[in-house]
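Me: I keep going back and forth on a fold encoding question. No explanation is needed for now; the record alone will do.

Assistant:
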Amino acid sequence: MKPPKEESVQMLSRQPTGALSLFVDKIWSVQADSLSLSGTNLPMLHSELMFNFSEFFSIQSAGAQPANTGHGCWLSTLQTAPSQSRTIGYHETLGVLLKPWGLYPLTNVPAHEFGRLFVSGEAVFSAAITPLTDAMQQAQSAAEKLIVLEKFLNARYAHKDVPAYLYYADAYLRRQPFRDGIVTELCRHLRISRKSLTETFRKYLGLSPGQYVRLLRFRAAADAIATQPDLSLTDLTYRHDFFDQSHFIHLFRAFADMTPGAYRSYFRTQRRASFGLPETTSPAFIPSGG
């Protein structure tokens, strides 16, 4: 399946400001009069709220039955394995890329309870979701729909907060080189027990601190491959503090269901971002046959 022509896909995004930016990275819209595309979605450093008004759109975890093929919305927490998506015909999706901790304040449901599933918005928000989807469908343009969605988010996040040490923990794990015992070091810096840190991470991020470190390492490696596809696997292994190439390949395959070499080959041939997705780092969508 060949990727669609770039001009056939209309993309729009908004960067939140003020208090909303503490919970949301980006609000986006993708629309195409006709689009036939399938592929693999790699794990991102975002939870997500997504709305589908397409003729046909499906998304599911690897090996699961197709889900969300009709109009509606769903949510997902941080993923640790790839998912598959497919769209045919008229395509219109809108979504919210949440900060890693953004799901629990939005839904009042601990993030770990979402598991690796794509959970129906109706099940989470109950009656509150119907007026929102109706207002979005009645809006005259994608820009107006994003404004409607942003107002909903502002209302949901009003007076919400997360523990201050969670921001520090995230920044610490992102900027520090990986090493054995990094989570124990973080607990010592924060002066809290590992049990308390793990409970907070699972509640807000849906992952343990150790799982989150693995996701950070995967995303850092994926970003490096996307931006510098001519780097050797040996360079990537040691730049990202893996013990050896075997450990690097094992972690990458666990998250992407492909080797870093296969991921690199895609970028060596494409030399461009993938179509129709509003990533904030490297592309997280690999078209089938791309």
